[in-house]
Write a structure and sequence with these properties.
binds iron/sulfur cluster, 47% helix, TIM Barrel, 9% strand, 472 residues, 20 helices
Length: 472
């Protein structure tokens, strides 16, 4: 029985509800009247239900799709302005006891080199990341209670925050580790993490169990209820996602939105971010086995409809996607991207030898961070290294209240300009610096509040003089 507030996975992600939603969407395929009513409602920026979103996803009329794209862009602009937040993943360990069929870290894979970074190696990785200009990381580890216990993750977070190399600093550590207990989530909160990220991979229970044949991750309920436990442990910001291409995408799309609705209804705060990874080639994984892979067109539609449906949630895209795809979806509401990512363990400080092969997936966008910053500037976005909200205590419902009131852009824009300036001073090439300075000059008059504008101008001067780390 579907119950959005239930704490039982199969009740808040009810298979019956998903199937009836898909049937409703199918019955209303290309129903222009209904689609236009939904789009009108979406213009209020208060979001849509999973049922309404499913109707939009089912639609394949070109003119209606273009309307969705236009609205998605407007909503992104209204809530977050033209800033794009930058981050990088940091792989700590690829030891894993699970048997996920789509991931090369699955425990039966014998030709991948297993690695776990020591604290000294983490230090080297963090210095390498700081030297690129990164301020925000997403920590990744496999699930292995012996090799990667929670104590190891906590110690690593401490190490990461402690390193200050030249003008560098990691100011926000998001954590993507396996589903765990309320006690462990409380420890992560205590360690000062930003967002707790956990992808559901697929919401279809049967498919989930087949894709995770062995290991603790096999337990669908424990995995699906993890966000509830994270919030019970005091973590305010959680990041969700499904791995598109594993199962039928429409089913997962509806499940994802029902999960978001559940968190909002049961915990009072929806997801802080949603990621939209698509399955990629990797060692010991045959992408041909995953025949549900989605086309670029459908992928773009998913991004745009998510933007319309959950306007308050950040949308993340990784280097799994090519430059071309990233360019497209940046126009459809993506608000955060990774750059210069290394998906192997220890790969930032030392280039991995071919035979070592510890990567989780092949990246599709292997440009340097400077090239990505340059490209974003050319497209009219402001690359942002901002980490201000969590450091200012703007998390959970405090953050959501500001976003819903349309006020967060008043913080995002000045913070983007100041952190971009930091990047330009410390890490950028000549060409990027020139473009960035120009963007900053052009953007200053767009800061609506005179007082804020004045403070930003002062801090830009401070940054010129070598001072660092300003924020609103
Ligand atoms: Fe392990 Fe995660 Fe890979 Fe599964 S997806 S094998 S849990 S690292
Ligand atoms: Fe993100 Fe907050 Fe910074 Fe905006 S001000 S970019 S929401 S951390």
């Amino acid at each position: 029985m579907y119950n959005v507030k239930s704490n039982v996975a199969t009740e808040f992600i009810s298979d019956e509800e998903i199937l009836s939603t898909l049937e409703f969407a199918q019955k209303n395929k290309n129903n222009k009247k209904l689609i236009n009513e939904i789009l009108e409602k979406a213009k209020d920026c208060k979001g849509l239900s999973h049922k309404e979103a499913a109707v939009l996803l089912e639609c394949d009329l070109e003119d209606e799709t273009q309307k969705m794209y236009k609205l998605a862009k407007e909503i992104k602009q209204r809530f977050y302005g033209n800033r794009i937040v930058m981050f990088a993943p940091l792989y700590l360990s690829n030891y894993c006891v699970n048997g996920c069929t789509y991931c090369p870290y699955h425990h039966k894979n014998k030709h991948i080199r297993r690695k776990k970074l020591t604290q000294e190696e983490i230090k080297n990785e963090v210095i390498a990341l700081q030297d690129l200009g990164h301020k925000r990381l997403a920590l990744e580890t496999g699930e292995d209670p012996v090799n990667n216990p929670i104590e190891y993750v906590l110690e690593s977070i401490k190490t990461i925050y402690s390193i200050k190399h030249k003008n560098g600093a990691i100011r926000r550590v998001n954590v993507n580790i396996a589903a765990t207990t309320v006690e462990n989530y409380a420890k992560l909160k205590e360690a000062g993490i930003g967002t707790y990220i956990l992808f559901q991979e697929t919401y279809n229970k049967k498919a989930y169990e087949e894709l995770h044949p062995t290991g603790p991750k096999h337990d669908y309920a424990y995995h699906t209820e993890a966000m509830d436990r994270a919030m019970d442990g005091g973590i305010d910001d959680v990041g969700m996602g499904v791995l598109f291409g594993l199962n039928l995408y429409k089913y997962d799309f509806v499940g994802l939105l029902m999960h978001a609705e559940h968190l909002e209804a049961a915990k009072g705060v929806g997801p802080h971010t949603i990621s939209v990874p698509r399955i990629r080639p990797a060692d010991d994984i045959n992408p041909d086995e995953f025949t549900n892979a989605i086309s670029d067109e459908i992928f773009q539609k998913i991004v745009a409809i998510l933007r319309i449906t959950v306007p308050y949630t950040g949308l993340i895209i990784s280097t799994r996607e090519s430059q071309k795809t990233r360019e497209k979806v940046l126009e459809l509401g993506v608000s955060q991207i990774s750059g210069a990512s290394c998906t192997s363990v220890g790969g930032y400080s030392e280039k991995e030898k071919e035979e070592d092969n510890s990567a989780q997936f092949d990246v599709n966008d292997d440009r340097t961070l400077d090239e990505i910053v340059n490209w974003l500037l050319e497209m009219g976005h402001i690359p942002s290294f901002c980490t201000a909200c969590y450091r200012e205590g703007r998390t959970g419902d405090r953050f959501m209240t500001l976003v819903k009131a349309g006020q967060i852009a008043n913080c995002c824009q000045p913070n983007a300009l100041m952190t971009l300036k930091e990047y330009l001073e410390d890490y950028a090439s000549e060409d990027t610096k020139k473009k960035g300075e120009e963007v900053i000059r052009n953007e200053i008059p767009n800061i609506p509040n005179e007082k804020v504008r004045k403070v930003v101008l002062e801090h830009l001067e401070d940054l010129n003089e070598g001072k660092r780390d300003f924020r609103f």
